[in-house]
Amino acid sequence: MKVGAFLMPNHPPERDFAEGHYHNLDTLEYYDSIGFEEAWIGCHYTVPREPNPAPDLLVAQALLKTKNLRVSPGGYMLPYHHPAELAHRIAWLDHISQGRSYIGIGSGSIPTDWGLFNIDGFSGENREMTEEALEIMIRFWQSDGEFDYEGKYWKGTRPPDDPEDLYKFHIKPFTKPYPQLAIAGFSPNSPTLELAGKNGYIPLSLSFGNTYLSGHWEAVEKGAAEAGREASREIWRIGRDVYVADTDAEARDKVLNGQIGDQYRNFWLPVLN
C-alpha cells in the first residue's frame, strides 16, 4: 500500500498564519523522514480554519527540506487565475522541482471564494471556467507558435516573437509535454471528477463515507467511458483521517477531544449538513 498525506491544511482559527505555515513545513519534513511517498497541499481563500491561498509557496519551500517526498499543490483553483499566468507558474514549479511535483487543479467549492472572485458557482460557472482555462493552459504548454484563443470566459494569446529575439514566449514545463495533472472533487457525482476520468488525470477525493466515495468513482468512470478510456483505481487518491495511538481507546479520546474532533464539530459537520 502506498501512503501519502493531504494537508488542507487545518489549523485552529486563532493560530498565527506564519506559525501555521512553518508547522505545515515541519510536518512535510517529518512525512519525508518516515517514508511517505507524496503529500498534497490544499488551497482556500476564505476559510479561517484552512488558510492557504498560495499552496505552491509551501511546496517550493518543502522541496528544499525533503529528499524523496513528492510534494504537490492540490490544487490550483483555475477560475481564480488567468490561464496565461498560471501556465507559467506551473511550468516554473515543474522546473524548480525537476518533475517532483504533480499539479492538482480544481474548480473551487467554497461559496465565499466564488464571491471573492465574482463567480457564480451555484450555476456551474466555475466548472465551465475550469475546463476553458485548462484548454488554454495546455495550448501554452504544447504550442510551437503563436495562437489566439477566445472563449466564453477567457482569452489566451501566444504573441509572435520579437524579430530580434529579445522578447518571446519561452517558458514551457520541465516535464514533457506537461506535468501529471490531478483534479480534486468535492460534491457527490462530481463533474470535475468526470473531467479527471475523461482526460486520465489523477482523481483526488476526501472520504466522508463509502456512499460518498462510490459517487466519486462513478463520476470518474463516466468521464472515462465517454472518452473511450478505462478508469484506473490505481491512480485514485483518497484522503481520510487516521490517528495512531497505543490503544483504540486512546486514539478515540484524542480524536474526539483534540483538534480533529474540534474541526469536525465546528466546521465539517456544519458544512456537510
From TrEMBL:
It holds the Pfam family Bac_luciferase. One of its GO terms (cellular component) is cytosol. InterPro entries: Bact_Lucif_Oxidored, Luciferase-like_dom, Luciferase-like_sf. Keywords: Flavoprotein, Monooxygenase, Oxidoreductase. One of its GO terms (molecular function) is monooxygenase activity. Coiled coil: none annotated. Residues 1-257 form the Luciferase-like domain. This is Luciferase-like domain-containing protein.
